Inverse folding.
């Protein structure tokens, strides 16, 4: 079993269908503390919305990248399962949003990161706080986050060239046991 999600394809972790999977890559992950994952909105994502990636889709992307991915990984780790066993036993659910403050917006082709801190995880329920940042054009995210630390995550220490797009609080997910 892997030690974190970096290098793992998101479609191996999340069961969302291809048109609803809003995570491209895991860039940094500490299983007990949090994650940084990235996504670039496509023409499909902004269709009929003036080229703007909708806030509700940004929240969904953040939830997939953070609460969905971290909870699936921790559940698998705790059970000692492989991904297929966890997927056949549980359905990931998104159950609440504590709050969101938007500071900017994203357009088609703007790569962004979801930076999430685990606030609580117990009994297959997870709560995440975090931020969404627009990534500067041309930046190699894997190289940038190679030496990232939990302390930097906790303080949101990130290069000034990133643009704060949203702050999210109390993003809560739960793995529901299939019958």
């Amino acid at each position: 079993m892997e030690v974190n999600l970096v290098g793992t394809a998101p479609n191996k972790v999340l069961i969302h269908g291809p048109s609803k999977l809003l995570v491209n890559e895991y860039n940094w992950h500490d299983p007990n503390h949090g994650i940084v994952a990235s996504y670039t909105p496509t023409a499909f994502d902004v269709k009929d919305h003036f080229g703007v990636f909708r806030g509700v889709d940004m929240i969904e992307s953040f939830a997939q990248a953070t609460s969905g991915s971290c909870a699936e990984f921790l559940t698998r780790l705790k059970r000692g399962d492989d991904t297929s066993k966890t997927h056949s036993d549980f359905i990931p659910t998104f159950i609440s949003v504590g709050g969101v403050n938007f500071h900017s917006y994203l357009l088609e082709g703007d790569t962004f990161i979801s930076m999430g801190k685990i606030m609580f995880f117990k009994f297959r329920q997870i709560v995440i706080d975090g931020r969404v940042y627009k990534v500067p054009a041309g930046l190699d995210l894997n190289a940038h986050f190679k030496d990232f630390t939990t302390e930097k995550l906790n303080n949101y220490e990130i290069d000034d060239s990133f643009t704060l797009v949203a702050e999210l609080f109390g993003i809560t997910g739960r793995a529901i046991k299939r019958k």
DSSP finds six helices and seven strands in the chain. The mean pLDDT is 93. The chain has one domain: 10-177. Helices lie at 10-13, 43-46, 55-79, 83-89, 141-144, 150-154.
